[in-house]
């Protein structure tokens, strides 16, 4: 624990996905003080035509109050 799920459009190389997972693990370890053995990362590719139905509506719009970073504006 924690488990991070990244949902993105297909097309990124395995190298880039691995680098992203490694960066997420490093940041989780640093910010939340967990050991590497406690962190897991999954990457789920979602086709662009399915994004609104499978990601935007259920994960973003329906959970707007839980988002720490919403799409469309800078942090």
Major sheet characteristics: 2 strands, parallel
Helix content: 25-40%
- The rough form would be described as globular
Q: Rounded to an integer, what's the Rg over CA atoms? A: 14 Å
Brief summary of the model shown:
With 75 residues, the protein is α+β, with helices and mostly antiparallel strands.
Describe the structure.
The protein has about 80 residues and is α+β, with helices and mostly antiparallel strands. It has two helices and two strands, in the order βαβα. It has a single domain, classed as Macrophage Migration Inhibitory Factor, CATH 3.30.429. The chain has a two-stranded parallel sheet with strand order 1-2. β1, α1 and β2 form a beta-alpha-beta unit. The longest helix is centred in the first third of the chain and has 19 residues. It is globular. The chain starts with a strand and ends in a 15-residue tail after the last helix. The mean pLDDT is about 95.
